[in-house]
Amino acid sequence: MNSTPVHARSMRRGGAALAALMLAGLAGFGAAPAAQAAPAAETATAQHADRTARGALLKVTPVADLSRAEVAAFLKKGKFDKATVRYGVRAYRLTYRTVDTQGRPTTATGLFVLPRTPEHRALGLVSDSHGTMVHRSYAPSVGEDFGRLSPYLHAAAGKAVAAADYLGLGKGPGRHPYMDTRSAVTASEDMLRASRTAARREGRTLSGDLYLTGFSQGGQVAMALGRELDRKKGGPFTVRAVAPVSGPYDLSGEELPALFDGRVNDTSGVFYLSYFLVAQNRLHPIYKDPSEVFRAPYADRVEKLFDGEHTEEEVLPALPGSVKELLTPAFYERVQHPDGGLKEALAANDGSCDWKPAAPVRLYAARGDTDVPIQNARSCATALAAHGVRAPVVDQGGVPHMESVAKAAPKIARWFAAVR
Questions:
Q1: Among residues 332, 348, 364, which one ends one of the domains?
Q2: Number of structural domains, the chain?
Q3: Where are the beta strands (DSSP E) in 75-218?
Q4: What is the pLDDT of residue 1?
Q5: Residue numbers of the domain that contains 401
Q6: pLDDT (0 to 100) of residue 7
Q7: What is the pLDDT of residues 318-335, one digit of tens each?
Q8: 257 and 227: one domain?
Q9: Same domain for 231 and 264?
Q10: N or C terminus: which one in the chain shows less Cβ crowding within 10 Å?
Q11: pLDDT < 50 regions, the chain
């Protein structure tokens, strides 16, 4: 169910080295353009409404200012092709208003990146959704490592980028509701709204053209975000292209069965399933006590491990080597034949491909992926085809999960540049 903990560790250990590329003394946001004067009471009311609405921008924190050469070096370190790099980038952490899993007001953070273009032309916006992250500091707006590779790539190619941290990651409150597609979509949609305001404050203009991408968990989020924007229609953005990478679009039909038939490797399977069950149990009635699901001694530790404060280096050694060692015999059987709250949780997070996009779609995946098997992308393509949409599955070859995005992202940047 998403970004590989095993392969990601090497990038995260390199975070300090990558941070050395970030420049100090970042320039702050410029003043907002002057507006026609309005009565004081009317202005105060409008400002209050803006500050309390979904997507209202509450705080802007500069986090990076990189030259073109520094972006190229950053991407090279992450094994991303740097051929599309044309500009340096400026990156900011946005704090904004959104809603939680129950629709109640809360806040979230996200990474907003602008290209350092010599002219201030209107910019298309890429919504770039990240994959599985267990520690809140891994989120794009905070962690100076893997989560910024794709956003910097797209910004350096000439587009603005909005990369939501999702709920409970970055500087957002609470625990992350892992694989809750609905809240990931609302947080991502509200990040788009906050990004429009941030762009104006920087004296930049967004054209309204929107490009959707995301990796792993974020691939599913990108498809679901497109579905939500299509359902609403008439908003400030028009989706021009959709290009998710290695998303778990079919939990019930592909991803969950793959835990038991050898298509998902044991280490990743244990990690994802543990994270999913703990997080989803807060939203759906899967279990009353961890001992109903997890064997001893894991029943006493699993929920604590996924509190957003533990790193993958801490989580992985504390888990067993296989799903069978993780789960009680009864729950091991139940996962293979889901019912009740578990079936409800899976159903709530499936269907991200069950709609008819007006924009072209390309589904990037890798036949060598043992975290999110390529059959997820093929299932997505089949669902889209049922709506009359042809979405090619672009196979990145026999590479593992993390390498699938390293290979795909530069191709996606070139495609987004070519879409008219």
A1: 348
A2: 2
A3: 89-99, 105-115, 123-129, 160-164, 206-215
A4: 54
A5: 51-250+351-418
A6: 38
A7: 999 999 999 999 999 999
A8: no
A9: no
A10: C
A11: 2-49
